[in-house]
Design brief:
The protein is of the alpha/beta class. It is built from eight helices and eight strands; from the N terminus they run H-E-E-H-E-H-E-H-H-H-E-H-E-E-E-H. Helix 4 packs across helix 5, helix 4 crosses helix 6 and helix 7 crosses helix 8.
Length: 282
């Protein structure tokens, strides 16, 4: 505060609670800025500070399991503003959306959509069971599945219909999300699929192998969480990343008990993919 108040364009500065400073500037400061803005027009604020440096800004990335929320919209606006500021200052910006189209949550989406599919075929489905998505936004997805497949899915085992329903449901959710983002005038350059990390090439497995070769992956056990362990906690040997070498509190699991990848494993594979695409800053 003393350093700020010593500045000739600052009329007052005062501490306002922990971490905050209220700052007031002279009227002449604002008038000068207004003159600059009027003189520069749309070019105001532009610079070559970024010198063409490639930057990846990943934002929104809401799970494709339902419509965008107000919180997602806030993140969309903030992320797009950051990307615009970077572009304004001479950076080469890629706006990216990470689609979480792998894992348990999209399987739940598929099962929820399948229930709406049965409803569209005239079946009374009653109350949506706990653990499934109850939103009416899946009713059109069920109707689309009925138009596309008729009653054929009813004769298939879940292992056969699940990927078909999942693909249709994800596509419908992403179409709705894109529409909402377009209403905010927000458009991404890249929509990156989490599923692409494992098919056709398993980038996550390749990452784990590379880390293991550098002695950053090992088989071990983790202590239970602090306090009372959750009911689903398992004391078992796991494939772990040596996160404590880099300042983390504990080492991080890379595989779940069923052999599938953890979110952490997929995330670090995704970040490595971005580095390999030439983005040093994200």
């Amino acid at each position: 505060v003393p350093r700020l108040t010593a500045h000739h364009e600052v009329t007052s500065a005062e501490v306002a609670g922990p971490g905050f400073i209220n700052l007031r500037l002279t009227e002449s400061f604002w008038r000068e800025r207004l003159k600059e803005i009027l003189a520069a027009g749309p070019a105001y604020g532009e610079s070559d500070e970024g010198k063409g440096k490639r930057v990846n800004v990943e934002y929104v990335s809401a799970n494709p399991t339902g419509p965008l929320t107000a919180g997602h919209a806030r993140g969309a606006v903030v992320g797009d503003a950051i990307a615009s500021l970077l572009a304004k200052t001479g950076h080469e910006v890629c706006r990216e959306y990470y689609i979480n189209d792998a894992g348990a949550q999209v399987d739940v989406l598929a099962r929820s959509a399948f229930l709406r599919y049965r409803e569209a075929l005239g079946e009374h489905i009653g109350t949506i069971p706990d653990g499934l998505y109850p939103g009416d936004y899946l009713v059109p997805v069920g109707e689309e599945l009925a138009r596309e497949h008729g009653r054929a899915l009813l004769d298939m085992p879940e292992a056969q219909w699940l990927p078909l329903v999942r693909a249709t449901a994800i596509a419908a959710m992403m179409a709705a999300i894109r529409k909402d983002l377009a209403a905010l005038d927000i458009r991404h350059d890249v929509f990156f699929s989490e599923r692409s990390l494992t098919a056709p090439d398993d980038k996550v497995a390749a990452l784990i192998a590379d880390l293991r070769a550098r002695d950053l992956v090992y088989e071990g056990r983790l202590p239970p969480p602090k306090g009372a362990p959750p009911e689903d906690w398992e004391d078992r040997e796991q494939t772990l990343f040596r996160a404590t070498r880099f300042g983390d509190e504990i080492d991080r699991p890379l595989l779940k008990s069923d052999g599938s990848y953890t979110y952490f494993a997929a995330d670090i594979a995704y970040h490595r993919d971005k580095f390999r695409r030439g983005y040093a800053d994200m």
